[in-house]
Design a protein that fits this description.
Largest sheet of chain A: 6 strands, mixed
Strand order of the largest sheet of chain A: 1-8-7-4-3-2
Structural class of chain B: alpha/beta
Helix content of chain B: 25-40%
Number of domains of chain A: 1
CATH topology of chain A: Rossmann fold
Largest sheet of chain B: 7 strands, mixed
Order of helices and strands of chain A: HHEHEHEHEEEHEEE
Bound molecules: zinc ion
Oligomer: heterodimer
CATH superfamily of chain A: Bacterial phosphonate metabolism protein PhnH
Structural class of chain A: alpha/beta
CATH topology of the largest domain in chain B: Rossmann fold
Distance between the termini of chain B: 48 Å
Radius of gyration of chain B: 20 Å
Helix content of chain A: 25-40%
């Protein structure tokens, strides 16, 4: 096993995961807001994405690693620290990768009418969370918020599925932003 | 107290729950935020307190608390009931958090049956203890059926029930746990808060609801539309006792009626004791304030 796989976990899991969860909760509850989230390091991932995985995932959460993020080193890190099964998009509770590599969104579960929560959460690794490219309204937004998004059409299509649909986290460095399925996205 | 590994010096984990349970609850909380008003199933754990004490709320608080939080617990508006004191002590001991009775100083407030009078801010989280999360339960006892009704937005029966109230009483008699529709989609039980509190459900803080026995978590994100169900000819009326608080003179708060002597004398006081004390400290006086009564 690579040394990389053994390192990069939390030194103090209960406390670091509590701070990380609050950052994720705040980000998803307030689309457009950028939060800091840190404490974990994984091969080829931003600190934010590694920390989010470590905070939310375990043996009960199948993960899909998109091409470009499906390295052996990351697979071993996940096996050691998280124990999550690696699966294809159609069985993923979480999906991780760059935006283009994660496409198409139609490959991931959107939940069922009785259980809309059984939908994939996508963790999208991006270069940066600014400058904003989209205008956001909806739950969590008092008037209007702004956010950098890779494109806008897929999020409009996702919103049209509500209450089904995908929920997104965008990660870069130590930063995280969230976009739940309820957000109405328009070009800036 | 926590040692360097973050484990508490006793033999339980930080905030009592083990990390795997917290992850499961945290995932449910995020889905709840993403689908406002929808009840997310979760695997509720046994807590060292009876169900009636809000084990759902306690588990949600445990999954949210960090050592940097300042925690407040209210029971029907009061910080000093046995229930509130016990839960506060539980997290003082297991999560090593600061606690407070002042609404504005708290970062997480766990509540049973009230929303604080003071407006909450973006930096706060309100956690509700919920006894019965399913607003359609009294119409339909079967979970498979209520789930289908939510899926199909089949809320006609709910309106029929409210309209029967009007036929019988001349107005909608439901005064607690008054059902709301969240973001135009899910009908939700706001827990047994007085309907007076319903307009406050649209707020800046994150609202999280935990039902322990029924194993459900749901949420209202900040600035989410929350509409109390009503009819054009009988609009929602968040009425309260038509009297001011006898201690602080407030005419805009939810009041408890208290019997004060053997002769059946009564007084009205703010149910939110911290809010009432704050007003009195600012010099506001009511009919029965010690000074006014002299
Ligand atoms: Zn008062």
């Amino acid at each position: 096993m690579l040394d990389d796989a053994l390192n990069g976990g939390f030194e103090n899991p209960p406390v670091q995961s509590s701070h990380a969860f609050r950052a994720a909760l705040s980000a998803l509850a307030r689309p457009g807001r950028v939060e800091r989230i840190m404490g974990a390091e994984a091969p080829g991932l931003s600190e934010a994405a590694a920390t989010l995985l470590l905070t939310l995932c375990d043996a009960e959460t199948p993960i899909y690693l998109a091409p470009g993020h499906d390295s052996e080193a990351l697979g071993q890190w996940i096996a050691f620290h998280i124990g999550a099964p690696l699966v294809g998009p159609s069985h993923a509770m979480f999906a991780l990768g760059a935006w283009d590599a994660l496409m198409p969104l139609t490959g991931y579960p959107v939940g069922t009418p009785e259980y809309p929560d059984r939908a994939t959460t996508l963790i999208v690794e991006v270069e940066a969370l600014t400058p904003p490219t989209a205008r956001l309204t909806g739950p969590g937004v008092e008037t209007v918020a702004r956010m950098r998004l890779p494109e806008t059409d897929p999020f409009r299509a996702n919103r049209a599925l509500f209450p089904l649909g995908h929920d997104f986290f965008f990660t870069a460095g130590e930063q995280i932003a969230g976009l739940p399925r309820t957000t109405i996205v328009e070009d800036l | 107290m926590t040692d360097q590994t973050g484990a508490t010096t006793s033999d339980y984990n930080f905030a009592y729950l083990d990390e795997q349970t917290k992850r499961m609850i945290r995932r449910a909380l995020l889905k709840a935020v993403a689908i406002p008003g929808y009840q997310v199933p979760f695997a509720s754990r046994e807590m060292p307190m009876p169900y009636g004490w809000g084990t759902g709320g306690v588990q949600v608080s445990a999954a949210c608390l960090t050592p940097d939080d300042t925690f407040k617990v209210i029971d029907q508006g009061a910080d000093d009931t046995t229930n509130a004191v016990s839960i506060r002590k539980f997290f003082e001991k297991t999560a090593d958090v600061e606690t407070t009775e002042h609404t504005q100083d708290a970062t997480i407030i766990q509540t049973r049956h009230r929303i604080p009078e003071a407006p909450l801010t973006e930096d706060q989280i309100l956690v509700y203890q919920v006894p019965i999360p399913e607003p359609l339960r009294f119409l339909e006892p079967r979970e498979t059926e209520t789930r289908k009704m939510h899926a199909l937005e089949e809320y006609g029966l709910m309106h029929v029930k409210l309209y029967e109230d009007i036929a019988r009483h001349g107005h909608i008699a439901t005064s607690y746990a008054y059902p709301v529709k969240v973001e135009g989609r899910y009908v939700m039980d706001p827990s047994p808060i007085p309907k007076f509190d319903n307009p406050k459900l649209e707020m800046a803080a994150i609202q999280l609801f935990g039902a322990g026995r029924e194993q459900r978590i749901y949420a209202i994100p900040p600035y989410t539309q929350v509409v109390s169900l009503d009819f054009e000819d009988h609009p929602f009326d968040p009425s309260k006792a038509d009297a001011p608080c006898d201690l602080c003179g407030a005419d805009h708060t939810y009041l408890d009626e208290v019997i004060i002597d053997d002769a059946g004398g009564r007084m009205f006081v703010c149910s939110d004791t911290d809010y009432c004390a704050g007003r009195q400290a600012q010099g506001h006086r009511g009919r029965l304030s010690p000074e006014a009564a002299e």
